[in-house]
Amino acid sequence: MQDIITVRGFVATDPVTRTTASGATVAGFRLATTERRFDREAGAWVDAHTNWYSVSAFGQLGSNTAQSVRKGNPVIVTGRLRVRDWSTEDRSGTSVDVVADAVGLDLAFGSAAFQRSQRAAAARPDGADEQDGQGQAGAVASAGAAEADGTAAGTGDGYVTELPPALRGGDAPATPPPSSEEGDEADDDARGVREPAAAGAA
Q1: In tens digits, what is the pLDDT along the chain, a chain of 202 residues?
Q2: For the residues of 131-200, what is the DSSP string, one character each?
Q3: 63 and 151 in a common domain
Q4: CA–CA distance from 3 to each of 28, 30, 38, 79, 82 (Å)?
Q5: Domain total for the chain?
Q6: Of the candidates 105, 137, 164, which is a domain's last residue?
């Protein structure tokens, strides 16, 4: 089992980037979270104990973290907690590490502008097109047709997300169009499709 933790604090060091033997990017930084408590004698909030974490972000998350996070930034980190003991010839201690699943700027302290990463679509194994009935070419063609009429949005990372009717700029009808044939109503009933009741109707 893994311990999942969410930490809210301030970046104590600029991210340091390295590359693993497999070519993956890893960004690491120190994160400090300081407890705040109310000092009744002083009548004010003061800093109390500070916890220190070593945060590691891998892959695309690591690349984006290295570009976006700087020392002093308030962040929220969610990831897997790892506590390990270490020792040298003259020193020993305990390291509290977080392998990040998500890193974000804490917008309680300021604003930020989001820019999506551009990633190529993942390669598909041989025969995958026959298994799901639609290959990458079909997906791209569908995306182009959908973008032409404004019903789909490309995510920029090799995936295409089709917007639901309610989010297509109000151009989708609120109710299904009236049927021109009497048999269509019976077909809809057989499929479990019902026209929404008018507002205020019982």
Answers
A1: 789 999 999 999 999 999 988 888 999 999 999 998 988 988 898 888 999 999 999 999 999 999 999 999 999 999 999 999 989 989 998 999 999 999 999 999 999 888 888 765 555 555 555 445 444 444 434 444 444 444 444 444 443 344 444 444 444 444 444 444 444 444 444 444 444 444 444 4
A2: HHS--HHHHHHHHHHHHHHT-EEE-SSS-EEEPPGGGSTT-S-SSPPPPSSHHHHHHHHHHT--PPPPTT
A3: no
A4: 19, 19, 30, 8, 8
A5: 2
A6: 105
Q: What is the rounded CA–CA span in Å between residue 31 and residue 98? A: 10
Contact 59/27 with Cβ under 8 angstroms?
A: no
Mark whether 8 and 94 lie in a shared domain. yes
- For 142, the domain range is 128-190
The CATH number covering residue 93 comes to 2.40.50.140
Dmax (CA) of the chain: 88
Check whether residue 70 and residue 38 sit in a common domain.
yes
Residue 101 dihedral angles phi and psi, to the nearest 5°: -100, -25
Element (H, E) at 68: helix 59-68
Q: Model pTM?
A: 0.57
Q: Is residue 118 part of a domain?
A: no
